[in-house]
Amino acid sequence: VGVSWLARGGCPSVLPAALMDAIILQERLVERLLSPRPQAPRSHPGRLKDHEKQYVGFATLPNQVHRKSVKKGFDFTLMVAGESGLGKSTLVNSLFLTDLYKDRKLLNAEERINQTVEIIKHTVDIEEKGVKLKLTIVDTPGFGDAVNNTECWKPITDYIDQQFEQYFRDESGLNRKNIQDNRVHCCLYFISPFGHGLRPVDVEFMKALHEKVNIVPLIAKADCLIPSEIRKLKERIREEIDKFGIKVYQFPECDSDEDEEFKQQDRELKESAPFAVIGSNTVVEAKGQRVRGRLYPWGIVEVENQAHCDFVKLRNMLIRTHMHDLKDVTCDVHYENYRAQCIQQMTSKLTQDNRIESPIPILPLPTPDTETEKLIKMKDEEVRALPACTSLVMELESK
Ligand code: GDP
Fold first, then answer.
1. What is the spatial distance between Cα 300 and Cα 261, in angstroms, rounded to a whole number?
2. What is the reported pTM?
3. How many other CB atoms are there within 10 angstroms of residue 188's CB atom?
4. Residues 182, 196: Cα–Cα separation, whole Å
5. What is the distance, to the nearest Å, from the Cα of residue 117 to the centroid of all Cα atoms in its chain?
6. What region holds the Septin-type G domain (predicted)?
7. Can you give the pLDDT at residue 223?
8. Of the residues 92, 141, 182, 232, which has the fewest C-beta atoms closer than 10 A?
């Protein structure tokens, strides 16, 4: 009622006081509703919020890198080497929970007498929580199996060099954006648990490869030894590695600002090398739990039990903590060495041949046209005419 009166601009002359009060109240209410309300300062769409003014935004860089890397996916190439029957295939399957060796053909003793080392590549795409990993396993069947094992590591070093060469070519080519990296990032070298340390073939192999690839030595089939024997064998292997000047993969130093738990894990990892591992592709029941292990008449050896072997340490190192470092060392140290050697050889060959054939075309410098030449001459003369410059020009010319 009040609104219609107000709208018409009128008010009846006589009205009861209560009704008048009600009308005034109503009037104020309408007034408040229609008038623009005093508001809290609204954020302007183009304007930064106060907390956004505090930083430039490069703190998001890790997120950008993370998103890009996840989108692109990761790749990792792992080589396994060591005499046949030491449990290489079983361990690889246990590490990545795959069956990479379905079609493997095992050779009999006669076939192995003159066997040469083969290089077999298996590739699998693994996905975990949306992160894709292209895993390539380079197997080396036949290594150390023949009667004469002289230079049996040669096909393996050749393979590693070929991958470097391919990468070097691709890098110098036109399509650098889509280079496929087949360089070997790590080599798991299996040492027999039955010897008293390294055998000559182990020393030869590691010495031939240590400057080309990250070698991680492993004591195979650790369930064949009791803990004190494992400790002794580890010590012996460490001593021999030092004695023969073999450079196995060195775990990077732990940052001083890391938390105590991480530092402890890092210490344990370094002290455990060379890792004593056990592999198994069967799941058995131990203390009411289904675990990956080996069932013996006297008990169960659990692959993932840290009291039984170093399998978990190896897996953590390889996949969770050091995969990136292994790739970095491959690229920054081993590949860089190869590349430097290649460039040195190329340069010395060119100097020998006494001709410079640069792969980069040398473009002829543009010769100035006559107009430009005239202008340069004029400017030259102008400079000479300046008394302050004359002495300087003469001095420079005399030199
Ligand atoms: P590879 O020739 O080096 O690939 O060896 P395999 O993985 O084929 O294993 C050879 C044999 O050793 C198989 O019978 C495996 O079950 C067995 N084996 C594999 N790993 C272990 C292990 O850690 N301990 C024991 N005791 N046997 C193993």
1. 30
2. 0.72
3. 24
4. 35
5. 29
6. 72-345
7. 93
8. 232
Contact status, residue 188 vs residue 216, Cβ threshold 8 Å:
yes
Cβ partners under 8 Å of residue 146, min gap 6: 112, 113, 114, 115, 116, 152
Report which protein residue has its CA nearest ligand 1's atom 18. Answer: 87
Position 132 scores a pLDDT of 86
Q: What is the position in ligand 1's atom list of the atom closest to the CA of 92?
A: 7
Could you state, in order of their start, the residue ranges of all structural domains in the chain?
63-253+261-348
**Cis preceding-peptide flag for 274 (omega within 30 of 0):** yes
Q: Give the separation between CA 34 and CA 144, rounded to whole angstroms.
A: 94
Does the C-beta of 293 come closer than 6 Å to ligand 1? no
- At 271, list the tokens: 């002290």
Largest Cα span, the chain: 127
Please name the residue that has the structure tokens 């008990």. 299
Burial 270-300 (b: 16+ CB within 10 A, else e): eebbbbbbbbbeeebebeeeebbbbeeeeeb
Nearest CA to ligand 1 atom 27: 221
Residue with tokens 């009291």: 307
Q: Does the domain spanning 63-253+261-348 belong to CATH 1.10.260.40?
A: no
Q: Is the CB of 84 under 6 A from ligand 1?
A: yes
Instruction: Give the mutation target among 78, 79, 90 for probing the ligand 1 site: most ligand atoms within 8 A of CB.
Output: 90
How many angstroms separate the CA atoms of 342 and 354, rounded? 18
Q: Where do the DSSP E strands lie in the chain?
A: 74-81, 120-128, 131-139, 186-191, 215-219, 275-276, 283-286, 289-296, 299-302
The pLDDT assigned to 388 comes to: 54
Strand 215-219 versus strand 186-191 pairing type: parallel
- pLDDT below 50 — which residues of the chain? 1-15, 38, 361-363, 365
Is 144:82 a contact under the CB 8 Å cutoff?
yes
Is residue 342 within 6 Å of ligand 1 at its C-beta?
A: no
Answer yes or no: are the C-beta atoms of 161 and 342 closer than 8 Å. no
User: Which among 249, 300, 298, 248 has a CA at the least distance from the CA of 278?
Assistant: 300
